[in-house]
């Protein structure tokens, strides 16, 4: 018997985690919220990867583990696979997802752009959007980092949102 | 079934997070210490073998007197090690798989820090029951 939860609950929980950490817990020091959210994601990723690698044999090298993350892990979490994987064969991987599920329903209100600025308003709007959604990507970065560290690969993960709803995760493996 | 067995779960940094004597034969005090010593000595061999094979279950990697060490490796960090003197390979494999599931359930507990000692008596009871069943 598998218990199921509505996906909207998961998305609302993600949004609320970000907003409560940024405005509630760390209201005076918002830059501390990001590592905290990432640490939560790390623990979650660690446990998820234990569960999903239960029946399969261990991975022989880094590329195999990354491919597991791109295919099975991502499809278990987000019901789709990573759309594009790039590597420079020197320890850096770029995982690109063309429609990231947790960000797909987010929109940025253009009226939040303050009037009276000299800069180009569309650039300002993009900047605001990038900042707001950037916070929501710390949790998935933490999940990827936790999953990889459980597979024996210490790494650093960062997210890049140049064009929504596509986003890419850059994984740098520490040698 | 009379056999001696010592079961240990070793985490990252070679710290044992769980150990149990699951034999049915009453043992002397120093034999228990010897069992732990043998299992620790086998860790180096486990490390070497882990790189050569991608299978999870390594049977009979080390012998000492009559006792054989078998190891079940999960994702490089955590190793389930068993010191035993019987030749019951299938039973041991099933035992390892069941303990693996138990361990994952322990890990899913958000209050459990991965790598710390497993102190739950429920886990302990279940492992001993499984040992009686499979070994």
Give the structure's gist in a few sentences.
Chain A: This is Trafficking protein particle complex subunit 6B. The complex is a heterodimer of chains A (175) and B (135). Chain A is α+β, with helices and mostly antiparallel strands and 175 residues long.
What this model shows, in words?
Chain A: It holds the Pfam family TRAPP. The complex is a heterodimer of chains A (175) and B (135). With 175 residues, chain A is an alpha+beta fold. Chain A has helices spanning 7-25, 33-52, 62-78, 121-136, 138-150, and strands spanning 84-87, 92-97, 155-160, 167-173. Chain A has a 4-stranded antiparallel beta sheet with strand order 1-2-4-3, covered by helices on one side. The longest helix of chain A has 20 residues, at 33-52. The radius of gyration of chain A is 17 Å and the shape is globular. Chain B is α+β, with helices and mostly antiparallel strands. Chain B contains 3 helices and 5 strands, in the order ββαβββαα. A 5-stranded antiparallel beta sheet of chain B has the order 2-1-5-4-3, sandwiched between helices. Chain B is globular, with a radius of gyration of 14 Å. The model of chain B has no long low-confidence stretch (mean pLDDT 77).
List the helices and strands and how they pair.
The complex is a heterodimer of chains A (175) and B (135).
Chain A: H1 7-25, H2 33-52, H3 62-78, E1 84-87, E2 92-97, H4 121-136, H5 138-150, E3 155-160, E4 167-173
Chain B: E1 5-10, E2 16-21, H1 29-52, E3 57-64, E4 67-74, E5 78-84, H2 89-108, H3 121-134
